[in-house]
Design a protein that fits this description.
- The protein has two domains: 248 residues, 3-Layer(aba) Sandwich (Rossmann fold); 65 residues, Alpha-Beta Plaits (2-Layer Sandwich).
- Helices cover 36% and strands 25% of the residues.
- By secondary structure, it is α/β, with parallel strands linked by helices.
- Helix 6 links the parallel strand 7 and strand 8.
- Strands 6-7-8-3-9-10 form a six-stranded mixed sheet, sandwiched between helices. The protein has a four-stranded antiparallel sheet with strand order 2-1-4-5, covered by helices on one side. The protein has a four-stranded antiparallel sheet with strand order 12-13-11-14, with helices on one face.
- It is built from twelve helices and 14 strands.
- The two termini are 48 Å apart.
- It is found in: Cell membrane.
Length: 336
């Protein structure tokens, strides 16, 4: 058997025991993860948990105190130029020049990368089309809505077509419609082969976009896995039944209690919840209701949410930053 040497070409991003200290304060404490090519890693945690500090180390903006990290096989400390050529970064705040038009912003980025003039023009037009900004291409960025600026910022990070993209809380401050639009753009990038590292404090965002999730709290990785694996840590799925007619709730309850021991009934909502015994049991229960002539609005399995997972892991919800002690990312920013 031949011994494997050199970087794993199937791994686009890797962190090994990353540590960042500012004086006596440890902002990031031994974070490790791998991101396979063409996948999305969600780095999930409350505001100030150290997510941004991790991204800044991975993108050469901060030097790790200890540990190692690679992007596209290049070391972030010893090969920073190659790392920057291999990745794009969308930071928490949009970095576009508000006094330039959308097209001028993208062409400026292409010029900074040293791309040929013809290619710069072509690439700018391609990205304006991809991000639904063609109609606003000649308007100054200051006139753009928040969602449009975010899309332009993301487009700017893709001018040089990097294989890896870091997105630090990309939808913070966007309205629900703009968030959904950006999610679809990100899904398209992944379908086209990009690798994404996405930090977020929005549990639904990680659930929607990430193939794997690393949960960070107070600078440490406290859990990792697929969204489904993390949900399974919070317990089994529940059977949820909603009866169409209020007068049939009692009969439906009797039928359900004949099959499962513990049933919670919300009569006002006409809803019953019970421990799930799997998909096969779900089908049998649905047939029992049908045989009794009881009409249902809904029946299905409900897994714990990522919010339930985070609460169980940390004792607080992702957006709850009260009483969490030091704010890792804030201290990191003040120390720069």
């Amino acid at each position: 058997m031949t011994e494997k040497t050199g970087p794993d070409r199937a791994i686009a991003v890797e962190a090994k025991n990353l540590v960042k200290k500012f004086g006596d304060f440890t902002a990031v404490d031994g974070v490790s993860f791998q991101v396979p090519k063409g996948s999305v890693l969600g780095v999930l945690g409350p505001n100030g948990a150290g997510k941004t500090t991790c991204v800044q180390m991975m993108t050469t903006l901060l030097t790790p105190t200890s540990g190692t990290a690679t992007v596209a096989g290049y070391d972030v400390v010893t090969q920073p130029k190659q790392v920057r050529q291999s990745m794009g970064l969308t930071a928490q705040s949009a970095t576009v020049d508000e006094l330039l038009t959308g097209r001028e912003n993208l062409r400026m980025i292409g010029d900074l990368y040293g791309l040929p003039g013809k290619r710069v023009k072509e690439r700018a037009d391609e990205l304006l089309e991809k991000f639904s900004l063609s109609d606003a291409a000649n308007k100054i960025a200051k006139s753009y809505s928040g969602g449009m600026r975010r899309r332009l910022d993301l487009a700017a990070s893709l001018v040089a077509a990097p294989p890896v993209l870091f997105l630090d809380e990309p939808t913070t401050g966007l309205d629900p419609h703009a968030r959904l639009e950006l999610w679809e753009v990100l899904r398209t990038l992944v379908r086209e082969g990009a690798t994404l590292v996405l930090t977020t404090q929005y549990l639904d965002e990680a659930d929607q976009l990430a193939d794997n999730i690393v949960v960070i709290d107070r600078g440490k990785v406290i859990a990792e896995g697929t969204p489904l694996q993390l949900k399974d840590r919070s317990g089994a799925a529940s059977l949820v039944v909603t009866v169409s007619r209020a007068e049939e709730v009692e009969q439906a309850e009797q039928i359900l209690r004949s099959r499962v021991e513990e049933v919670h009934v919300d009569r006002d909502a006409r809803r019953m919840t019970a421990p799930s015994e799997g998909v096969s049991a779900l089908a049998a229960i649905a047939n029992a209701f049908a045989d009794a002539g009881i009409e249902l609005d809904d029946i299905g399995l409900q897994r714990p949410s990522l919010d339930d997972v985070f609460l169980g892991l940390t004792g607080h919800r992702a957006e709850d930053t009260s009483n969490l002690g030091e704010d890792a990312d804030k201290i990191a920013e003040e120390a720069k």
